[in-house]
Amino acid sequence: MTTVKNVKYVKCAAFAAWLAVPDSAYAQDKAETGYVPPTALVEIGDAFAKFRERTPVPGMVYAVVKDGKLATLSMVGVQTIGGAPVQLDTRFRIASMSKAFTALAILKLRDDGRLALDDLAEKHIPQMRGWKYPTSDAPRIRIRDLLAHVGGFVTDDPWGDRQQVLSEAEFTPMIAAGVPWSRVGQGAHEYSNFGYALLGRIVTNASGRPYQAYIRDTIMRPLDMASTTYDIAKVPTGKLAIGYRWEGEQWVEEPSMRDGAFGAMGGVITTAPDYAKWLSFLLSAWPARDGADIGPVRRSTVREMAQGLNFVRIAPRNGAAAGDKCVHAIAYGMGMRVTPDCDLGLTLSHGGGYPGYGSFVVLAPERGVAAFGFTNRTYQAPSVPVWQSLWAIAKTDAIGPRPIPLNPLLGQMQDAARAAYLAGNLNPLDGKLAMNFPLDRSSENWTKEFARIKGVVGECSTAEPLAPTGNLSTAFRWNCAKGKIDGQILLAPTNPPTIQALRLFPQPD
C-alpha cells in the first residue's frame, strides 16, 4: 500500500487550479488546516483493510479531503491482474457519483437563464411530448423531478449500467417511444438512471453542445481536472484501472464500455487527485458568507444540491458500532443523498456501481471534510470504510461544527436582559421588546419570575460567551451565586429586531 499523508495544493487565479504535488518528506502539523490526527489515520487504514478482507478487490484508492487539502491518500493493489500497481494518476470509473456533475450542470444552466427547474422536461426534450402518462391526473415530469428521482420511472441499475454505449442517435427514438411506468410521478422516490440520462439530454439541448463538453468546459476545466473525462478512449495507455468481476473463482475482465448518451448518469472517469479538487470546490460553498464567488458555479447554487423533494427513508448508520443509537433520515437532493449525521452534521453522499467498478463518497460540508474510495470490482463500493473514516476523525475533535458568527445585537440584548434580571423588572428592556412580549406575559408576572429565580440561584455576576443558533437567536449561560441560568434569546423579524422571547432555566448547585 502506498500512502501520501498530505498533498499540497497551489492555488491559481481561477477558483482552484490545485496541483497535487506529493511530498514524501512532508510531516503533518496541527497548524495545517488539512491536519488529520495519527490515531484517525490508523483507524482509516484499518477500516479500508477490513473492507478489502471482506470484499477482495484488485485495486483501490481512498482519500480524505479536509479544509481544501487532500489530507491523506492511499493506493492499494493493482490496475490490472498481474500488472501495474494503482498509482496517483490511475483512472477509475466512478459510475453514479457522476450524477452530481450532471445535477450541478443543470443548476448552472438555471443560473444562466437557460432553463427553470419547474420547466416540464418535454420543453427541452421534444420527443417526450407524446408520452402517455399512467393516469389521467398524473403530473407531467419537471426537471426538478428528474433531479430527485421522483419522475415515476422504475429502478434500473442493472439495465441502466449497460446502456453506457447507447449513442445519442439511438437514445432519441428510445425517448420518443415512451416508457412503462413504475408509479405516478411526484409521489415517491425511485432511483432512475434513465432519468439522469434525460437530464444529460436537457443539458445538451439547453446549452447547445454535448453535455460532456458543457460539463468539461464549465466545471471540470476551471477546477483543473485535467485527468478527468467521459471518453475512455482518451485515457492514456496504462493509466486505466481495468474493471473486473469475481466469477467462477477467478477474476473476469468486464467490457470497457465507450462513452454514450447514458454517461450523464454514470460516465465520469477520474483520478483521486482530480476528484479531490471537485470535493474541495463543493466543500468551499459552506458556510454562506460575504465575498466574491470565484468558482465555476455560485456557492449558493452548490449548497442547493442539498435540497430535495423530501421523500425520506430511515436507516441505521452503515458501518456504525453495535448499539449505535444514531439513525440516518435519508432524502435525495440533487445528485447527492442528504442526511444529518449525529457526529458529522449535514452530509451529502453517493455511491457508484458499474460493471467493473465500485465507489463511494461522503461530504460533511459543515465540518469542511470529505472522504471517498474507488475500486475496480463490479458494484463493490467501499461505503462502510468511507463513513468510518469520517467518524474516526470526528472522534478526535479535529473537525467540529463551524461557529455561527455572532450578531453584535445579540450581545446587546443579553446585556439588557441581565440588567433586567438584576433590577428585578423589565424596565432595562424598554424599547427592546417585540409587541408580543407583554401580551404573552405581563410585566408584573416577570417581576415575580425574576424574584423566584433569584431565590433559587441568586444574583448572576458573570456570563459565558454566547452560543448563537442563528443571526437572530442565541443560547446563553449566566454564572450565579448559587448555580447558573441557562437561557435563550429569540429576536423578532422586525426592523430593527426586538426580543420576542426570553427564556430562563435556573440550574441550582
What can you see in these coordinates?
The chain is an alpha+beta fold and 509 residues long. It has helices spanning 38-54, 99-111, 121-124, 143-147, 157-161, 168-176, 193-207, 211-220, 263-266, 272-283, 299-304, 383-395, 408-423, 436-440, 443-457, and strands at 2-4, 7-8, 21-22, 59-66, 69-77, 92-93, 244-247, 250-253, 269-270, 313-316, 327-332, 337-341, 345-354, 357-364, 369-375, 460-463, 467-470, 473-480, 483-491, 499-508. The strands form five sheets. A nine-stranded antiparallel sheet has the order 1-5-4-15-14-13-12-11-10, sandwiched between helices. α1 (38-54) packs antiparallel against α12 (383-395) and α2 runs parallel beside α7 (193-207). The chain is globular and about 80 Å long. 43% of the residues are buried. Mean pLDDT is 92; it is low at 5-32.
The number of helical elements comes to 15
> How is the biggest beta sheet arranged?
9 strands, antiparallel
Mean pLDDT level: 92
Radius of gyration computed on alpha carbons: 27 Å
Poorly predicted regions are 5-32
Structural class of the helix and strand makeup? alpha+beta
**Percent of residues in beta strands:** 15-25%
Shape: globular
Find the count of extended strands (DSSP E, 2+ residues): 20
What percent of the residues sit in helical stretches (DSSP H or I)? 25-40%
Q: How far is it from the N-terminal to the C-terminal residue, by CA?
A: 55 Å
Cross-sheet strand order for the largest sheet: 1-5-4-15-14-13-12-11-10
